[in-house]
């Protein structure tokens, strides 16, 4: 790996457990890896509106200055994904879903004809596959239950745009007492060591 795109979505910023696990993972990567960071707490994206979609659909040469500025949100994000050799995300669970800031980013990454296309056989992702590492932190225990809407959503989203090499590291039960939180973080840290060695190989 030469470049890693890091996307953090905790509203707690660096104090968030997902951000802290991301930071630990990054320390395990080779020293020459370049990091491209997106912190959605300090630089949140607005929710997607129709005028921005209209800007995408307008040929670049015909865009107004306002449309060019609107389209740049999506164009820049997609360019950064193309340039990255791997993507690392910190994803806390808020009310059973992903943070709305992260959903706003996803809405700008999924673009017909750019990151996916529809065919007679169904949708096909257009991005070159690369590792996607998700650090999922939760106050309760949700992995493998019907209440975990995050995991299938993230899996489906990344598969939809062509990114099928996915790794999930969970830290759950973080609000269920000190011992439960400690055990969850220790388990996640062990998984970090295993995965970082695998990806660096």
TrEMBL record:
SUPFAM superfamilies: Flavoproteins (SSF52218)
Pfam families the UniProt entry points to: Flavodoxin_2 (PF02525)
Catalytic activity: 2 a quinone + NADH + H(+) = 2 a 1,4-benzosemiquinone + NAD(+); N,N-dimethyl-1,4-phenylenediamine + anthranilate + 2 NAD(+) = 2-(4-dimethylaminophenyl)diazenylbenzoate + 2 NADH + 2 H(+)
Cofactors, names only: FMN
HAMAP family: Azoreductase_type1 (MF_01216)
Entries under InterPro entries matching the protein: Flavodoxin_fold, Flavoprotein-like_sf, FMN-dep_NADH:Q_OxRdtase_AzoR1, NADH:quinone_OxRdtase_FMN_depd
Protein name per Swiss-Prot or TrEMBL: FMN dependent NADH:quinone oxidoreductase
């Amino acid at each position: 790996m030469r470049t890693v795109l890091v996307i953090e979505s905790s509203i707690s910023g660096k104090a968030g457990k997902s951000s802290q696990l991301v930071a630990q993972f990054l320390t395990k990567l080779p020293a020459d890896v370049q990091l491209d960071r997106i912190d959605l707490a300090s630089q949140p994206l607005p929710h997607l509106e129709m005028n921005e979609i209209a800007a995408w659909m307008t040929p670049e040469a015909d865009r107004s200055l306002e449309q060019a500025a609107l389209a740049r949100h999506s164009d820049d994000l997609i360019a950064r994904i193309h340039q990255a050799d791997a993507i690392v995300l910190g994803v806390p669970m808020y009310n059973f879903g992903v943070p709305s800031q992260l959903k706003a980013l996803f809405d700008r990454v999924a673009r017909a004809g750019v990151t996916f296309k529809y065919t007679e056989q169904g949708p096909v992702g257009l991005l070159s596959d690369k590792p996607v590492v998700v650090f999922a932190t939760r106050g309760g225990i949700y992995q493998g239950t019907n209440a975990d809407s995050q995991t299938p959503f993230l899996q489906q989203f990344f598969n939809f745009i062509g990114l099928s090499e996915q790794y999930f590291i969970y830290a759950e039960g973080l609000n269920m007492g000190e011992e439960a939180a400690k055990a969850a973080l220790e388990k996640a840290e062990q998984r970090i060591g295993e995965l970082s060695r695998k990806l660096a190989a």
